[in-house]
Amino acid sequence: MIAICNNEGACGIAATGASLARGDLALDAIEAGIRLVEASEEVRTVGRGGWPNLLGEVELDASVMDGTTLRTGSVGSLTGYLHPVSIARQVLERLPHELLVGEGARRFAAEIGAEAGELLMPHARSAWQRWLETEVSAAEQARWPDVPMAELCQQAIDPETGRDTTVFLAQDVEGHIGAGTSTSGWGWKYPGRLGDSPIIGAGSYADSRYGACACTGVGEMSIRAGTSRAVVLYMKMGMSVEEAVHEAVEDMRALKGGLIGRVTIHAIDRQGGHKVVAVNGLPENHYWLWRAGDAAPSSHPCEIIAISDVPAPKPTAHRRYEQMGL
Ligand code: ASP
């Protein structure tokens, strides 16, 4: 048995480990852990307390994958519900579909009696209001929200502050492997933007015969490289979990243009091994690990690999953080 999650999952990993130790299914253990992260207002990139999009609305993405049946459930651009991971789980359990977005996801959430609630917390509301007043021209504020937004999303909050996700991978006592993700995506994203978190194969993938992978960071990169599916496929083709993750890093070197930044690739294999690499990461990038017999989860540094084509940080980022009181 093993569970890993990214640093954002700190408040949920002990619950996931305890659930696995009781003999629960991997997906149940993952859902229990992620729900705690979604409920925490301290985690500003997942669930309640997450950053809003350009319109000032918190749009959530989440997914689960059962590596034994290869069934998945995802929701994208979901507003107004507190636990998108559980709604994603019910997509898997109840529907013949794998992914619901926007109004359809809301409709399904209401139909199953999912817990509704306000997601935009005061810190995020005032940061967004401040952004609107300082970064959007008076003429556009007067016409808001009927203004072109393509430029605005290019200049929005620095993604390294306004972005993250939680990802959990686990193998249960029966050997079932699962993956789960949940995020508010990028702060100040273009409305309707989906990251990699609800895209199975990009933000996560699980196959109990080989292992599982999940990514955090610039979702646009893992979508383009098909990272999570690639890592599991590389293991199927005979690579170790370390080799598979390193091969996926090589895939990312081939990305040209578009947004290039940090991506952290988390992977486990079916023999109890794991590997976490932060592409373009920083020394503070850590992940959490729990294994059968561990009294408590432990935090470990990610391996850091720099790839080319990393843009310099925006010079104005710090001014924006100050304005937003971050
Ligand atoms: N991967 C997430 C997304 O692209 C964000 C993150 O993990 O930083 O929405």
Ordered list of secondary-structure elements with their pairings:
Layout: E1 2-6, H1 10-21, H2 26-39, E2 60-66, E3 71-78, H3 84-94, E4 99-101, H4 102-111, H5 122-135, H6 138-143, H7 150-154, H8 159-162, E5 166-171, E6 177-183, E7 204-207, E8 211-217, H9 219-225, H10 227-236, H11 241-253, E9 263-269, E10 274-279, E11 286-291, E12 298-301, E13 303-305, H12 317-323
Parallel strand pairs: 3-4, 10-13
Antiparallel strand pairs: 1-5, 1-11, 2-3, 2-6, 5-6, 7-8, 8-9, 9-10, 11-12
Bound molecules: aspartic acid.
The site of aspartic acid has 12 residues, from strand 8.
Structural description of this entry:
The chain has 326 residues and is of the alpha+beta class. It contains twelve helices and 13 strands. The strands form two sheets. The protein has an eight-stranded mixed sheet with strand order 4-3-2-6-5-1-11-12. It has a five-stranded mixed sheet with strand order 7-8-9-10-13. Helix 1 packs antiparallel against helix 2 and helix 10 packs across helix 11. Aspartic acid (ASP) binds next to strand 8.
Care to give the gist of this entry?
Helix content is 35%, strand content 22%.
Report the sheet-strand fraction.
Answer: 15-25%
Helical proportion? 25-40%
Uncertain runs with pLDDT below 50, 5 residues or more?
Answer: 312-319
The rounded distance between the terminal residues' Cα atoms is: 38 Å
| Heteromolecules bound | aspartic acid
Q: Average pLDDT, to the nearest integer? A: 91
Strand order, main sheet: write it out. 4-3-2-6-5-1-11-12
Structural class of the secondary structure composition?
Answer: alpha+beta
Question: How would a crystallographer describe the biggest sheet?
Answer: 8 strands, mixed
Q: Summarize the helix and strand pattern as letters.
A: EHHEEHEHHHHHEEEEHHHEEEEEH
According to DSSP, the number of beta strands is 13
Shape type: globular
Oligomerization: single chain
Total helical segments: 12
Measured on Cα atoms, how large is the radius of gyration? 19 Å
